[in-house]
Specification:
The chain is α/β, with parallel strands linked by helices and 415 residues long. The protein has 17 helices and 9 strands.
């Protein structure tokens, strides 16, 4: 099942949105037969009725697939609020444009026009919503709008990192809306663990988190890591039987988490952003985590420099549009894999990333067999740069904690 298309179809649960969108969404726009079937079932309704949808879709689908569809529909409020309907409308419009352009590209197979059509499709896909507004700061309403652009609908949503170094380095004391944070570290250094720790920390503060994995993880891996980190138990025990750790308290925490998994190069940055907007329309989250950028499908395989800039520009636009922080993992260039410190230019593939991001947090781990490393603030648009802290890795329980210099040196000496 394609998450992106299913969410478009599921939004048809809303009676008002369905009456309008069903006039412009065409069946050929769906490539996923299950999404098409759901869309067809919903658009036949005058008033939403799950029993009718179930009767029309159950033939040929497993109980697990039907349960997943019901859970997705249950996650769509009915009716949608005004703000959620606006977000859904933007996401549906993007879906219509993309599917129409993709159809044109498939149909037109004249060699001389391929590049021109590709660039046209790329440029049309993103709809900026923050441009073109001139702020007058003598007007309290404009001040409030500027606050909302950073902090979201509430004027004070600061999401604390699990690391004091990060919080103390940001002028507002934690992650805020619109921030694009790049986490850079060599393979096996602990980037994914850092992201799970900060995702869990956000959940513990009562916030909702969308965690997107690309390439080398599956949903069960995510469940194991979050459960092990929260419960403080060895990941091996959770892998063998995750259900024994799913107490009511753990379930309450994980109810604020949504995990999406894509394969290598299965999704482009535009597709990730569109899916996030669709989900936000029915389940407004507070943070997005992307693990990791190298597995996002490039928009131009001939130029990683251009592709990297476009990917990060798209993620930055998403962060600003939804007023949420976006954290994304990135590999450094090979020559920095064993370095004790990483400069801004260490991030792989494209220097354009470095100009777009608001913050770069680097992980150094000279001896990956040891449990010690260094966390450093390499770039910071809203606070000081260059501060660093020694950290201790406990990968068995998916945790990283700040530690002392003496403990770090002792960890490095372990063979």
């Amino acid at each position: 099942m394609l998450h992106y298309e299913l969410h478009v179809a599921a939004l048809m649960k809303d009676d008002e949105l369905r009456s309008i969108a069903s006039q412009v969404i065409k069946p050929w726009m769906f490539s996923d037969p299950i999404a098409l079937k759901l869309y067809g079932s919903l658009t036949k309704l005058k008033v939403y009725d799950w029993l009718y949808v179930q009767a029309g879709m159950s033939d040929g689908l497993s109980d697990a697939e039907m349960n997943a569809i019901k859970a997705m529909l249950d996650g769509v409020p009915s009716p949608l609020s005004h703000d959620h309907r606006e977000q859904a409308t933007v996401a549906i419009n993007e879906f219509i444009r993309k599917q129409t352009l993709a159809f044109v590209i498939r149909k037109i197979n004249i060699e001389g026009y391929k590049d021109e059509i590709f660039h046209l499709a790329r440029d049309v896909q993103v709809v900026p919503t923050l441009n073109g507004h001139a702020y007058n700061f003598s007007d309290p309403a404009h001040i409030q709008r500027a606050q909302q652009a950073m902090f979201g609908a509430g004027t004070g949503r600061i999401i604390k990192s699990s690391f004091d170094l990060v919080n103390s380095s940001i002028v507002v004391g934690g992650y805020c809306g619109g921030m694009l944070v790049m986490l850079v570290g060599p393979p096996g250094a602990g980037k994914s663990t850092f992201l799970v720790d900060d995702g869990l920390w956000a959940l513990l503060q009562g916030y909702k988190v969308l965690h997107i994995y690309l390439g080398d993880m599956n949903p069960y891996d995510a469940l194991v890591r979050y459960t092990a980190a929260y419960c403080g138990v060895d990941q091996k025990a959770v892998y063998l039987n995750a259900t024994q750790f799913q107490t009511q308290q753990v379930s309450d925490i994980l109810s604020r988490l949504r995990v999406v998994v894509y394969g290598y190069y299965e999704a482009s940055a535009d597709q990730l952003a569109s899916y996030a907007r669709l989900l936000y329309a029915s389940w407004p989250f507070d943070m997005v985590i992307v693990d990791y950028d190298e597995n996002i499908s490039p928009v131009n395989v001939e130029s990683l420099y251009e592709s990297g800039g476009y990917t990060y520009g798209t993620l930055k636009t998403l962060a600003e549009n939804l007023a949420v922080p976006v954290l994304v993992a990135c590999q450094p260039k090979v020559q920095y894999w064993s370095a004790d410190s990483m400069p801004l230019e260490a991030a792989a593939e494209s220097s354009r990333k470095q100009h777009i991001i608001d913050m770069m947090i680097s992980f150094s781990r000279p001896n990956r067999r040891s449990g010690g490393g260094t966390l450093e603030i390499t770039k910071n648009r809203r606070g000081p740069e260059g501060y660093r802290s020694r950290v201790r890795f406990d990968m068995n329980v998916a945790r990283i904690v700040q530690t002392t210099e003496d403990d770090y040196q002792r960890l490095l000496s372990v063979k």
